[in-house]
């Protein structure tokens, strides 16, 4: 069986000159998770869920690991932030992630953009902060 591969320059962070592999942001929307979602997850430096995407990971990621307790899988695959207009996230999913310390950012005041746009804006705003933390961790 051949390994599945995925390549995309979309949402790739610029790699600092002294690092050979680039960093990626993973944005999860309200779409079915691909079978290779864990691979994308493992290579992502930043993981952002749109509100409906939180439901998809909560429900779908345990299905990719049927031999592991679903709660353990959900703890392993938690986002850095959930962002959107909060019209799609189920109450129990939101409570689960909030109890894990995940930041939930309600930007429902901005109805001129989609949840994808809201998430991409977060990623773009985070690039400088991530670059600073990469530099400081390399010198530690």
Automatic annotation (TrEMBL):
Residues 40-126 form the Thiamin pyrophosphokinase catalytic domain. InterPro entries: TPK_catalytic. One of its GO terms (biological process) is thiamine diphosphate biosynthetic process. One of its GO terms (molecular function) is thiamine diphosphokinase activity. Pfam families: TPK_catalytic. PANTHER family: THIAMIN PYROPHOSPHOKINASE, THIAMIN PYROPHOSPHOKINASE 1. This is Thiamin pyrophosphokinase catalytic domain-containing protein. It comes from Zingiber officinale (Ginger).
């Amino acid at each position: 069986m051949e390994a599945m591969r995925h390549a995309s320059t979309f949402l790739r962070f610029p790699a600092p000159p002294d690092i050979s592999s680039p960093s990626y942001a993973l944005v999860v929307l309200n779409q079915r998770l691909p079978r290779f979602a864990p691979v994308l997850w493992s290579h992502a430096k930043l993981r952002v869920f749109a509100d409906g995407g939180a439901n998809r990971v909560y429900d779908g990621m345990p299905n990719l690991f049927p031999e592991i307790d679903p709660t353990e899988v959900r703890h392993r695959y938690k986002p850095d932030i959930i962002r959107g207009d909060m019209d799609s996230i189920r109450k129990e999913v939101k409570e689960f992630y909030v109890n894990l310390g995940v930041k939930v950012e309600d930007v429902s005041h901005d109805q001129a953009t989609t949840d994808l746009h809201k998430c991409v804006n977060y990623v773009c705003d985070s690039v400088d902060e991530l670059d600073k933390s990469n530099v400081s961790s390399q010198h530690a």
